[in-house]
Amino acid sequence: QVQLQESGGGSVQAGDSLTLSCETSVFAYGTYSMAWFRQVPGKEREAVATINDAGFTNYPKFMEGRFLISQDKAKMVLYLQIRILAPEDTAMYYCAAATRRFGIGYFTSRNYPYWGQGTQVTVSS
Question: Which 3 state secondary structure label does DSSP give 123?
Answer without folding.
Answer: strand
